[in-house]
Design goal:
The protein is of the alpha/beta class and 369 residues long. Helix content is 56%, strand content 10%. The chain starts with a strand and ends with a helix. The relative contact order is 0.11.
C-alpha cells in the first residue's frame, strides 16, 4: 500500500480522495497540508481526512516527515504557485527519503513546466509526473466508481504510471498518453480549446437571444427553454448544461469553472496553439476568451465568478465596456505572442504571478539550499 501526503488536499478536486481511498488500499494518506483557510468545503474535507486517518499539518516540512512516504500528491495552483511547492518538496524529500520518492502533480500547468519539473526532480533523485484532472468538482466527487467521474490525463514514465494505476482508478478514470512528460499537460490544453470555444459559442447564442427575444436581458424560463432546445440538436455544446444553464435558470454565475483558474489555462492553451503553428483564427479565439476573463477579474475584484459569466458582458448593455478594455489592453495586435503578453499584463497581480510563463529548471533550482 502506497504511503502518501497531500498538498491541496482541502481543495474541491483533491478533497474527495479522502473518501475514495478506503482502509483496504491502494494508498494510505498519512498527512495533508492545512494552511488554516476556513470556509467553503474545506471544513468537510478536514473531517473526511481525519476520518481517513490523516494528520493535518501546516508546513511542507512537517508534511514531508522523516522518510515514511512513498510520494506526495500535489493539486494546488498554476505555474507560478506550484514551482515553489515542487522545488521545496523535492528538497525535503531528497533529504529524508531512503528510497526514491515521487511527486504526483495533478494541477493544470503548461507543458514547459512539466518538462522542467521532470528534469529538475530527476536531478535530485525524485520522480515527477504531471497528470492533470478534468471533469470539475462533481467529477472529483464521483470518483472512479462512476462512469461520469473525472478524467486523469497521465504521461511520463510508464513504470510510475503502472505503479500509481490502482490509486488513480479509485480517484477517476486514468488514460496514459505516452512517455513525454508534457503529454498530459498538452492533452488538458487541447481540451480547453474545445471547452472555451464552446463557451464562446453558447454565450454568443445567449446574447443574441437576449437582444432579439428577451428585452436585452439574460434569464427567464423562455430563454432557458429556447437554448436548451437548440443545445439538444447537432450544434450543442456541454457549456450549456455545465455552465450557462445555471445562470439563465437561477441567476447563478459563481458555480462552475472559476475564471481565476480558467484565465491562466486559456493563456497556456493560446501559447500551445502558437507553438503548434496554428492559424491566427485558432489563436485569437483563445486570447479573446482570456481577455474576457481578465476583464471580469478586473471589473469584479474579490468576487468568485465562473466562466459562463462572460455571457453577461456580451449582451448589448455591457459589450462596449468589454470591447474598450480589450482594445486598450492590446487584444487585437498583429503579433500573437505580443497579444498573449498583453493579456498576462492585464491580469490582477496575484493571478499574473500565478501564470508564470516560460518555466525552466532554474525556477526550481532557485528554491534549493
Amino acid at each position: 500500500m502506497l504511503k502518501l501526503a497531500y498538498v491541496g488536499g482541502l481543495g474541491m478536486m483533491a478533497g474527495p480522495a479522502a473518501t475514495h481511498l478506503t482502509a483496504d488500499g491502494p494508498a494510505r494518506v498519512l498527512r495533508v497540508q492545512d494552511r488554516g483557510t476556513q470556509g467553503g468545503s474545506r471544513d468537510r474535507y478536514r473531517t473526511d481526512w481525519q476520518a481517513h486517518g490523516a494528520e493535518l499539518v501546516p508546513t511542507l516540512q512537517q508534511l514531508a516527515g522523516n522518510g515514511d512516504l512513498d510520494g506526495v500528491v500535489v493539486c494546488a495552483g498554476k505555474n507560478g504557485d506550484d514551482v515553489a511547492i515542487i522545488s521545496e518538496l523535492t528538497n525535503l524529500l531528497r533529504a529524508v527519503s531512503t528510497t526514491r520518492p515521487f511527486i504526483l502533480h495533478l494541477s493544470t500547468v503548461s507543458p514547459d513546466f512539466a518538462e522542467a519539473a521532470t528534469s529538475f526532480c530527476a536531478s535530485q533523485q525524485v520522480d515527477y509526473v504531471n497528470y492533470p484532472l478534468t471533469g470539475g468538482p462533481l467529477g472529483a466527487q464521483l470518483g472512479g466508481s462512476d462512469p461520469k467521474g473525472m478524467l486523469i490525463l497521465a504521461s511520463g514514465d510508464a513504470a510510475i504510471y503502472q505503479r500509481l494505476l490502482p490509486l488513480l482508478q479509485r480517484l477517476g478514470h486514468p488514460r496514459y498518453f505516452g512517455s513525454s512528460p508534457a503529454a498530459g499537460a498538452i492533452t488538458k490544453l487541447v481540451g480547453h480549446h474545445m471547452v472555451f470555444n464552446g463557451l464562446n459559442g453558447i454565450a454568443t447564442a445567449a446574447a443574441i437571444h437576449a437582444d432579439c427575444f428577451n428585452q436585452g436581458r439574460l434569464g427567464g424560463d423562455e430563454q432557458f427553454d429556447y437554448l436548451a432546445f437548440l443545445n439538444g440538436g447537432a450544434g450543442g455544446t456541454r457549456q450549456w448544461e455545465l455552465g450557462l444553464s445555471k445562470g439563465i435558470a437561477t441567476d447563478n454565475w459563481e458555480q462552475g469553472f472559476s475564471i481565476h483558474h480558467a484565465v491562466v489555462d486559456a493563456i497556456y492553451a493560446a501559447r500551445l496553439a502558437v507553438a503548434a503553428g496554428l492559424s491566427r483564427i485558432s489563436i485569437q479565439a483563445m486570447t479573446n476568451t482570456a481577455f474576457t476573463f481578465s476583464y471580469l477579474l478586473n471589473r469584479y475584484p474579490g468576487q468568485t465568478l465562473a466562466t459562463h459569466a462572460v455571457a453577461r458582458e456580451m449582451i448589448r448593455s455591457g459589450s462596449a465596456d468589454l470591447d474598450r478594455f480589450m482594445t486598450e489592453r492590446g487584444a487585437f495586435g498583429a503579433d500573437a505572442d505580443a497579444v498573449i503578453a498583453a493579456c498576462v499584463a492585464s491580469l490582477p497581480e496575484k493571478i499574473r504571478d500565478s501564470a508564470l510563463l516560460e518555466v525552466t529548471t532554474a525556477h526550481f533550482e532557485s528554491g534549493l539550499d
